[in-house]
Write a structure and sequence with these properties.
about 140 residues, mainly alpha, 5 helices, elongated
C-alpha cells in the first residue's frame, strides 16, 4: 500500500515537472515568435487563430512522441506483467487513453501561455512602432 502511494505521488510529481517544462518551452517559443504574433495580430488574426497555430505545432510533436513511446511502453509493461502468476492482456486502448490524457494536459498547459501571448497588446504595439519607424527612416 505504501509503495502504491509513493508511485502515485511520484507520478504526479513527474507530470507536474513535465508540464513545467512544456510551459517553459511554450513561453520561449512565444517570446521568440513575438514579432510573428504581432504581425499576425496587426493583419487581423484573432486570438483563436494564434492559439490554433501554437496548439497545432505542439500537437504534432506530442503525437509523434506518443507514437514513438508506445512500442517501448508496451515492451516494458509486458515484461513487467509477465512476472506475475495472474496475467492481463494489454489493450491498445490503454495506450490511446494515456496519449489522449497527455494531449489534454499539454493543451491546457499550452493554452494558458498561448492565450496570454495572443491577448497581449504590447506585441501588437511593438510591431506597429517598428513598421512606423522603418517607414519614417525611408
Amino acid at each position: 500500500m505504501r509503495t502504491q502511494k509513493a508511485f502515485t505521488y511520484l507520478s504526479g510529481l513527474a507530470i507536474f515537472v513535465a508540464c513545467l517544462g512544456l510551459l517553459g518551452l511554450i513561453a520561449y517559443t512565444t517570446e521568440v515568435r513575438t514579432k510573428e504574433i504581432g504581425v499576425r495580430k496587426v493583419l487581423g488574426a484573432s486570438s483563436g487563430d494564434i492559439l490554433g497555430l501554437l496548439l497545432k505545432e505542439f500537437a504534432i510533436l506530442i503525437i509523434i512522441a506518443s507514437l514513438l513511446a508506445w512500442p517501448a511502453a508496451y515492451l516494458f509493461t509486458r515484461s513487467y506483467l509477465d512476472r506475475f502468476a495472474y496475467r492481463i492482456d494489454l489493450d491498445p486502448g490503454v495506450f490511446l487513453v494515456g496519449s489522449l490524457l497527455i494531449l489534454l494536459i499539454a493543451f491546457c498547459t499550452i493554452s494558458f501561455q498561448a492565450i496570454r501571448a495572443a491577448m497581449s497588446e504590447r506585441r501588437q504595439t511593438r510591431v506597429i512602432q517598428q513598421f512606423s519607424c522603418q517607414n519614417c527612416a525611408s
